[in-house]
Amino acid sequence: MNKLTVDVAVIGTGTAGLSAYRAARAQGKRTVLIESGPYGTTCARVGCMPSKLLIAASEAAHMVHAAAGFGVHAGQVRIDGQEVMARVRRERDRFVGFVLEGVDNIPDQDKIIGHARFLGPHLLQVDDHTSIDVSRVVIATGSRPYLPEELRGVGPGVIVSDQVFDWTDLPESVAVIGTGVIGLELGQALHRLGVRVSIFARGGSVAQISDPEVLHVAARVLGSELDLRFQHKVVSARQDGAEVLLTTRDGAGAERSERFQYVLVSAGRTPNVDNIGIETTGLELDAKGIPVFDPLTMQCGTSAIFIAGDANNERPLLPEAADHGKIAGDNAGRYPNVHPGLRRTPLAIAFTEPQVATLGASYRELCTGGSHKFAVGKASFENQGRSRVMLQNHGLLRVYGEYGSGLFLGAEMIGPRAENLSHTLAWACQARMTVAQMLEMPFYHPVIEEGMRTALRDLAAELEKGAPAQSKAPDCTPGV
Ligand SMILES: Cc1cc2nc3c(=O)[nH]c(=O)nc-3n(C[C@H](O)[C@H](O)[C@H](O)COP(=O)(O)OP(=O)(O)OC[C@H]3O[C@@H](n4cnc5c(N)ncnc54)[C@H](O)[C@@H]3O)c2cc1C
Ligand SMILES: NC(=O)c1ccc[n+]([C@@H]2O[C@H](COP(=O)([O-])OP(=O)(O)OC[C@H]3O[C@@H](n4cnc5c(N)ncnc54)[C@H](O)[C@@H]3O)[C@@H](O)[C@H]2O)c1
């Protein structure tokens, strides 16, 4: 057994781990990075990048169909599944290559290969080859797809998102389980690429939306294109030759069995903290077994252990993993003099079409406590000028503001170019602008942002009225 003594050990070489390593090294600390899987990060290998590549191909196919609405007829569309998947994999490999170059530049003595687990708060073991005495640890172990009991051990037809990006051709049919971000992004992309897709939701949720009005519009707009089946539970799945026989039960109790080439399970992700000997650290754990930590410092209690990225499940998104990692690594280097790091206004975007975006305080968070203490403004994209010009006039934007101060609090939306609108709004939120100040900003014509201005004007009018004397308890329970 090799024995090492280091200042900081970072477990996991994903986005959070790499960022933590750099930050701890910047504090002049002897730091090692431990990795049990392939280098390259989840984002580049099986996450953000390959999924957006598949979506880009599907958008190209969709644009050809949509052109007819403008009187432009492109003729018969032919989708070559092998070419589609070859580009996805080729470009994915290019992105992974950039990460690998960065990893190559890390000195060999700082990189340890193997599965790390705690034997105590200051002792790690990597596989059965290395034991590390360590002053401070950053847990950056990421997450893995969650597989519900009824879908375990079925056979090769039941897959998770990781496997999609290794396909060499598009399949004939896919049942998607879950209407979260992964299910909707991949389900819509595959549908637009000519795959027969059915998407099953055990409840009524759509991506990360918590506002019931936005949820309602999102379910309608996405449901008008996709075979979206809400309130459908998986009863069983059985591999039958090259197909999976999937049995589901709808809200009325009726069962139906159908055959699909693949069942793609996108039912959430589980943080990788259950297999690292966390129980030997003495840390306080929450109900999900994740160490209780401070989201400003990433410190677990008052210990010398920090947790970053998907592993802490706070906001399991790429930009957050990078920020978490920087804060955790920096504070591991500084320990015990930890500092709060830069946390930004929450922002999440689902790359469906129309896109779904949420930022700032969510409707659900604002409802916590049960009283309606915030004003809501809204704008539909149905008749919004620029959206109609582009034949993308679907969706709804709802914006929230604080009575009294007039501060802009957050927004939820489904609509055209939501990725851009949500950035503008998130910047205003982080700058702590009031709704009145936002309306003083320039708006060109004709642009989608004019729809945002309509919502903000509506919000300003609601704020002007003042808080209702009798606070109305809003419906804060969108189909969970
Ligand atoms: C399909 C998909 C699409 C996504 N799209 C987006 C998007 O568009 N935008 C966005 O912001 N986010 C997106 N995400 C989320 C984003 O990819 C993740 O939030 C981010 O990659 C998490 O980074 P991380 O560093 O926490 O984890 P990872 O990159 O997963 O790194 C964790 C590393 O730890 C290693 N490890 C685990 N346990 C151990 C151990 N015991 N010992 C040693 N090593 C260990 C793992 O092998 C892994 O390499 C997507 C995710 C998926 C799955
Ligand atoms: N564009 C992006 O930023 C992006 C894209 C993809 C993934 N991600 C990240 O990856 C995370 C994981 O994505 P996801 O879509 O797997 O999770 P999710 O949490 O977004 O959605 C999970 C879905 O599965 C359903 N579900 C949960 N348990 C189930 C069960 N037992 N049976 C059937 N359905 C069940 C839920 O109701 C929900 O619809 C996201 O939360 C997000 O942080 C982000």
From TrEMBL:
<feature type="domain" description="FAD/NAD(P)-binding">
    <location>
        <begin position="7"/>
        <end position="325"/>
    </location>
</feature>
<feature type="domain" description="Pyridine nucleotide-disulphide oxidoreductase dimerisation">
    <location>
        <begin position="349"/>
        <end position="455"/>
    </location>
</feature>
<dbReference type="InterPro" id="IPR023753">
    <property type="entry name" value="FAD/NAD-binding_dom"/>
</dbReference>
<dbReference type="GO" id="GO:0004148">
    <property type="term" value="F:dihydrolipoyl dehydrogenase (NADH) activity"/>
</dbReference>
<protein>
    <submittedName>
        <fullName>Dihydrolipoyl dehydrogenase</fullName>
        <ecNumber>1.8.1.4</ecNumber>
    </submittedName>
</protein>
<dbReference type="InterPro" id="IPR004099">
    <property type="entry name" value="Pyr_nucl-diS_OxRdtase_dimer"/>
</dbReference>
<dbReference type="InterPro" id="IPR036188">
    <property type="entry name" value="FAD/NAD-bd_sf"/>
</dbReference>
<keyword id="KW-0560">Oxidoreductase</keyword>
<dbReference type="Pfam" id="PF02852">
    <property type="entry name" value="Pyr_redox_dim"/>
</dbReference>
<dbReference type="InterPro" id="IPR036324">
    <property type="entry name" value="Mn/Fe_SOD_N_sf"/>
</dbReference>
<keyword id="KW-0285">Flavoprotein</keyword>
<comment type="similarity">
    <text>Belongs to the class-I pyridine nucleotide-disulfide oxidoreductase family.</text>
</comment>
<keyword id="KW-0274">FAD</keyword>
<dbReference type="InterPro" id="IPR001100">
    <property type="entry name" value="Pyr_nuc-diS_OxRdtase"/>
</dbReference>
<dbReference type="Pfam" id="PF07992">
    <property type="entry name" value="Pyr_redox_2"/>
</dbReference>
<dbReference type="InterPro" id="IPR016156">
    <property type="entry name" value="FAD/NAD-linked_Rdtase_dimer_sf"/>
</dbReference>
